[in-house]
Specification:
The structure is a single chain. The protein has about 400 residues and is of the alpha/beta class. It has two domains: about 280 residues, Aminopeptidase (3-Layer(aba) Sandwich), CATH 3.40.630; about 110 residues, 2-Layer Sandwich (Alpha-Beta Plaits), CATH 3.30.70.360. Helix content is about 35%, strand content about 25%. The strands form four sheets. The protein has an eight-stranded mixed sheet, sandwiched between helices. Strands 10-12-8-13 form a four-stranded antiparallel sheet, with helices on one face. A hairpin with a 3-residue loop joins strand 1 and strand 2. The longest helix has 27 residues. The radius of gyration is 24 Å and the shape is elongated. The relative contact order is 0.19. The mean pLDDT is about 95.
């Protein structure tokens, strides 16, 4: 495979400037989840320029197509997400977001550009593999219920059905030129927790006349910490955090209700269900015991993401062959969530990280921040490695 590696690396260098400009165009024109109409049009336009005409839409703004090799074989899927975040960009760059309040702050512009680059590379190497590569440009990773769940319902994992699925995500903690993998469970499930604590408002100087939802809320928040600290199996990583409390307007008026928003994350589906029920039970019982009530709404989020052991091991070895063992690192568990997880519960999958950090250039900001950016040399690794991993799987 040494000659193939060199050929893919050569093509990555050859196409680098075009894919760089592709990434910058997407970065400058971000669109929110389920609104990626121009992005989908642009993806199809670029694919047509590459000679790929048989694309089709899925879930309105998703784009998919298949690339067939020299003969029959298995099918592998390659996925990139295409949506942006409601963040105002603070970077001073030529390709800064032109859509006010919307930014590719999680690197989906990079993912999309890399998959387009991989498509261009692979479209010229169809005589190097047998089987089929299904390309998935997926909308709405950032917004529940997740574009992946919708695409699955609409049949993205059928006709043809992939036996493996591969996904790539930027990682600003890893230097450019390196990639990271983790076998087994990697990213957490994530559910949104919304509590509405109801009492009876009144003048703060007359406590005998009101039922204080603020006091009830404080007791609920403190008590719910025991879901993780005293009710969870310590061998199962879990996080329950509340990021928003809203209630009242002035210091001496007790409101009628308080709203509390939070998130619960873990790595075990059975415990996930139990914990969410405990959140409901504790919130209701405390509110009732203090004379109020609590409406609990839990918006189901993404499941935990699990990388297939055998498939990921194979990809680690292939990545070492492609870029050197010293440039392939092992990842820790990550409590963030990603809707690629839906695919991994249907098909053996591998979700790996692309290093984008460059401290000398000052490129160190994390994802979901107004100053997130990448060392764009990562595009060479991004498109080339994905192309190689696809061929390696189909040929083995």
């Amino acid at each position: 495979m040494t000659d193939l590696i060199q050929e893919i690396k050569s093509l990555s260098e050859k196409y680098f400037e075009e894919i760089l400009e592709t990434r910058r165009h997407i970065h400058a024109h971000p669109e929110l989840s389920f609104q990626e109409n121009d992005t989908a049009d642009f993806i199809e336009k670029k694919l047509n320029e590459f000679g790929i005409k048989d694309t089709r839409r899925i879930a309105d703004t998703g784009v998919t197509f298949c690339l067939n090799g020299k003969g029959e074989g298995k099918t592998i899927a390659l996925r990139a997400d295409i949506d942006a975040l409601p963040i105002h960009e603070a970077n001073d760059i030529d390709y800064k977001s032109q859509n006010e309040g919307v930014m590719h702050a999680c690197g989906h512009d990079v993912h999309t550009a890399n998959l387009l680059g991989a498509a261009k590379i692979l479209s010229g190497l169809t005589d190097h593999f047998s089987g089929t590569i299904k390309f998935i440009f997926q909308p709405a990773e950032e917004k529940s219920p997740g574009g992946a769940s919708i695409l699955i319902k609409e049949g993205i994992l059928k006709n043809p059905a992939p036996q493996r699925i591969l996904g790539q995500h930027v990682m600003p903690l890893i230097p450019e030129g390196k990639v990271g993998f983790r076998k087994g469970k990697y990213m957490a499930s994530a559910d949104e927790v919304y509590l509405t604590v109801k009492g009876k408002g009144g003048h703060a100087a007359m406590p005998e006349t009101f039922v204080d939802p603020i006091a009830i809320s404080s007791q609920i928040i403190v008590a719910l910490q025991q879901v993780v600290s005293r009710m969870a199996n310590p061998k199962i990583p879990s996080v329950l955090s509340f990021g928003k409390i809203a209630g009242g307007n002035v210091n001496n008026v007790i409101p009628n209700e308080v709203k509390i928003d939070g998130t619960f994350r873990t790595f075990n589906e059975e415990w996930r269900k139990q914990a969410l029920q405990k959140i409901r039970d504790i919130s209701n019982s405390i509110a009732t015991s203090m004379g109020g009530s609590c409406d609990v709404h839990i918006a189901p989020g993404y499941p935990f993401l699990v990388n297939d052991e055998d498939y990921t091991t194979k990809n680690i070895e292939a990545a070492k062959a492609y870029m050197g063992a010293e440039n392939v690192v092992e990842l820790d568990l990550w409590m963030a969530a990603e809707d690629f997880a839906f695919y991994t519960h249907e098909v053996p999958g591998c979700f790996y990280r692309l290093g984008t950090r460059n401290e000398e250039k000052g490129i160190v900001s994390g994802v979901h921040t107004p100053t997130f950016n990448i060392d764009e040399n990562a595009l060479k690794v991004g498109m080339g490695l994905m192309a190689y991993l696809a061929i390696n799987e189909l040929n083995n």
